[in-house]
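Hi R.,

Here's the chain you asked about this morning:
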Amino acid sequence: MSENHTHENKAHAHEHKSHTKEYIIVFFVLTFLTVLELMIPGLDTKYAYKATGLISLAVGKALVVAYFYMHLKEETKWMRIIAAVPISAALFAVVLILETMYR
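And the predicted structure, written out as tokens:
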């Protein structure tokens, strides 16, 4: 009986969960952010503000894609930390780029 019980627990652990609703919401969020990206170049403001807005939106979209489509939200804490290293490096690069733009 314990073998059958163990088999049932494994079956429940591998149950498939539909992510359709979540993916549709993420699709609309990414669409909204893309529309904002398309509107920014037409704004009557300084180039630095436009660049900052576009870079921020690109980083935001990349984080959304990584979190949902690369399933980082379902990973262990250590995997999230490992993924945060290149993200923090990218953010550092963005800060350096912005800093040089304002000189």
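The CA atoms of residues 89 and 95 lie 10 Å apart.

Let me know if you need anything else.
M.
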